[in-house]
Description:
Chain A is an alpha+beta fold. Chain A has a domain at 268-345: Elongation Factor Tu (Ef-tu), domain 3 (Beta Barrel). Helix content of chain A is 20%, strand content 33%. Chain A has helices spanning 6-11, 31-40, 60-65, 115-124, 149-157, 197-206, 214-223, 258-266, and strands spanning 15-19, 22-27, 43-46, 51-56, 79-86, 92-102, 105-110, 131-134, 139-145, 168-171, 175-178, 187-193, 210-211, 273-279, 291-294, 297-307, 314-320, 330-335, 338-345. Chain A is globular. The model of chain A has no long low-confidence stretch (mean pLDDT 97). Chain B is of the alpha+beta class. Chain B has one domain (8-120): CATH 2.40.50.100. Chain B has 5 helices and 9 strands, in the order βββαβββββααβαα. Chain B has helices at residues 29-35, 82-85, 89-92, 109-112, 117-123; strands at 8-9, 14-19, 22-27, 38-42, 49-50, 55-61, 65-69, 74-79, 101-105. Chain B has a 6-stranded antiparallel β-sheet. Chain B has a 3-stranded antiparallel β-sheet with strand order 4-6-7. The radius of gyration of chain B is 13 Å and the shape is globular.
Amino acid sequence: MRTPLYQAHLDAGARMVEFAGWEMPVQYAGIMQEHKAVREACGVFDISHMGEFFVEGPGAAAWLDSLLTNHLAPLPAGQAQYTLLLNERGGVIDDLIAYRLAPEKFLLVVNAAKIAEDAAWFEKYRAAGVAFADRSSEFAALAIQGPQSPAVFEKLFHRPMPAERNRVLEMPGGSYTATTGYTGENGFEWIMPATEATAAWKAALEAGAVPCGLGARDTLRLEMCYPLNGSDLSPDRTPLEAGLGFFVDLKKPAFTGREALLAQKQHSVLPHKLCAIRATEKSPPLRPHYRVFANGEPVTETTSGALSPTLGCGIALAYLPPAYCDPGQELEIEIRERRFRAQVVKKPFLKKP
Amino acid sequence: MNVPENFRYATTHEWILAEGGTGTVGITDHAQAELTDIVFAEPPPVGKTVKAGEVAAVVESVKAASDIYSPVGGEVVERNAAIEADPSLLNTDPFGAGWIFKIRLANPAEVESLKDAAAYREQIGG
Lengths: 353, 126
């Protein structure tokens, strides 16, 4: 599949790769350069492959609260919230952003690889008084991220970018902006009708945003320890194990997976926790599925890994048994039959003021 | 794409510049452009013997690790430590400061069997 911006990517010199069934740009000028652009100026990412679901009706908030981990009922209209969709075992089906567009109208932005599975799940639990629609194919989206994003926003919309995080605005022409993102930088995401995508992309570039691909998107999110579903999150791991307890409201009366999470909480220790690991000697870049050793024994493998362009060292995430989760824990990571010293560190890798 | 005339080329995008009984080996401009930002390089240890087509070194970009094959057989007599300290030399000067290792040729005739600049240029389409 191709997003409406396929040709625009080729015109901008993109190298295309397959991602979740989509032909997406992995990089334009280079991952290191694009990463730096987002940390120091402003970058624009095509995120049109992501899914858009609309949920409307008098029962919409209550229905979503019965399926998602975070609490939507108290969220004011015009706000967005990170949340998770779980299976009955408390495992993660998907992580997503829920936008409250109006008291009875929600937009859910879900991962590209999970559109069909998520939609089927919502359809399965369909309730009276709630209209659910998967409108993914009608929408395109851009993520505009970096310290210069407010200036880009102002050029695009002739109004200041909201200073508040997670603020949703409805724009003329059926598009939405939200001060959300996956990079740890100030910025916004802009969801628009697919027909508007090319004009929006051009306008973003003219306003000073640098085209950025999935390569930089991955290194940026990993420096912030934001999980990637399918790598760091899975149907066999709970959000508590993933360190996402902040986005789980166990005080809500009921939601799918809650019983499993409560049972897990009753045990004093989790079976494993997603930890941040940093190479402490010069090593090749860390990558997913590298074996991790503690006291000479293999204990797990990395779920994500990269060379951190900002820190200049290898960084990774891995589910570790509780005995090895404390910051300072010495580990080794195996790369091509050699082991390199590493250490558990406090999340995130990159501390933002 | 830069393809210097006096070098010989392997189809796997390594070059060799032979002088006397030794050759200097690196990756081509085309290869470095395909690999993108090189962030890690591991030249072979001195004394390692390799056959033509065997893995001799590894370079890694942000996205992937790539094996570098020796275009000829022989014994590694020198390794470029500068690319370990600054792997971006492979991107900025692939035919010069970004060389990877020097090899004592087991069979100098192997060099002649590699592609010349014209043939390699044809392989990469220009």
